[in-house]
């Protein structure tokens, strides 16, 4: 496992923030960590990155306890924060080439480091801006540069914190393509935090929902989207009137619908529960104290 967490606990003074968190992430896997503000996401990520010591629990990242990770271990990590104070007077290529030199001593026979500068610039879509000053880049271009800085050392594990905040739709789509390339072609394991559930659904192989300091759900986007009582919403028009019906078995309902109305049914639409529906329902259940069977099992 690239990430292995068991019974992770964190206490600030008399306040417990994490209550026995358990999860793993494998090579090349994209895992999204979702949760409301105050759920403990930032604390969890900071512990995995080695910037904060846990109160208790077993944590291994790339086989090492982050609390004692050395420079060679840290060279295998990439971190993309929500924002950082960049060096506006540097040119894009100059900065990436300069930063990449710090990773050269940590190359191995199995993994060359860093990324070739021009290859990296092409990977993040900044080839046409390679010789521009950073201060002249747009917000989306700077975000691409953030990613380039995070992966310049060819990390085995990449942390992405709200990676597309402020992106326009086109830039967001390009960024999603980049994430897929990094995981599929470079074999990077990626752990991302986001409040954009549609983004999590597009990017993640697996989604973790953290609420109240506990993992309350763990599964693929498709698995989680079926969690809310498995219900689907069927919409249709009959003789000019619009109808909506919620059902556990959409296929059977539609079959009966056409049996009853051989003609006159149009604009038929079947909408299953979305990831957003599931997420909101899970958090609401947790906050109201109504733990599901899976939650109890995860504990």
From TrEMBL:
Keywords annotated in UniProt: Antibiotic resistance, ATP-binding, Nucleotide-binding, Transport
A family per Pfam: ABC_tran
Bilayer topology: Peripheral membrane protein
Family: Belongs to the ABC transporter superfamily.
Subcellular location per the Swiss-Prot or TrEMBL entry: Cell membrane
InterPro entries (alphabetical): AAA+_ATPase (IPR003593), ABC_transporter-like_ATP-bd (IPR003439), ABC_transporter-like_CS (IPR017871), ABC_transporter_ATP-binding (IPR050763), P-loop_NTPase (IPR027417)
UniProt main location, coarse: membrane
GO cellular component: plasma membrane
Signal peptide (residue range): none
Transmembrane segments: none
Upper taxonomic lineage: Bacteria, Bacillati, Actinomycetota, Actinomycetes, Pseudonocardiales
Domain ABC transporter as annotated: residue spans: 3-237
Protein name: ABC-2 type transport system ATP-binding protein
GO process terms (BP): response to antibiotic
GO MF annotation, one: ATP hydrolysis activity
């Amino acid at each position: 496992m690239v990430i292995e967490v068991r019974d992770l606990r964190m206490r600030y003074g008399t306040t417990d923030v994490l209550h026995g968190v358990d999860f793993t992430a494998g090579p090349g896997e994209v895992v999204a960590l979702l949760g409301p503000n105050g759920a403990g996401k930032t604390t969890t990520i900071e512990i995995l990155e080695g910037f904060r010591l846990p109160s208790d629990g077993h944590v291994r990242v790339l086989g090492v306890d982050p609390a004692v990770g050395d420079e060679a271990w840290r060279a295998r990590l990439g971190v993309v924060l929500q924002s950082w104070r960049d060096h506006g007077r540097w040119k894009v290529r100059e900065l990436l080439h300069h930063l990449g030199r710090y990773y050269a001593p940590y190359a191995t026979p199995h993994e060359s480091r860093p990324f070739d500068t021009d290859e990296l610039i092409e990977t993040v879509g900044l080839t046409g801006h390679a010789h521009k000053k950073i201060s002249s880049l747009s917000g989306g271009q700077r975000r691409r540069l953030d990613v380039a800085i995070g992966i310049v050392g060819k990390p085995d594990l990449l942390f992405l914190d709200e990676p597309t905040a402020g992106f326009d739709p086109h830039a967001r789509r390009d960024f999603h393509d980049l994430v897929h390339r990094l995981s599929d072609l470079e074999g990077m394991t990626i752990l991302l935090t986001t409040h954009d559930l549609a983004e999590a659904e597009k990017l993640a192989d697996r989604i973790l929902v953290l609420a109240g300091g506990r993992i309350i759900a763990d599964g693929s986007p498709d698995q989680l989207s079926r969690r809310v009582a498995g219900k689907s919403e069927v919409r249709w028009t009959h003789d000019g009137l619009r109808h909506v019906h919620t059902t556990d078995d959409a296929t059977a309902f539609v079959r009966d619908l056409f049996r009853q109305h051989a003609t006159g049914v149009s604009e038929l639409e079947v909408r299953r529960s979305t990831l957003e529906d599931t997420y909101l329902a899970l958090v609401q259940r947790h906050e109201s104290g109504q733990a599901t069977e899976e939650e109890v099992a995860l504990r």
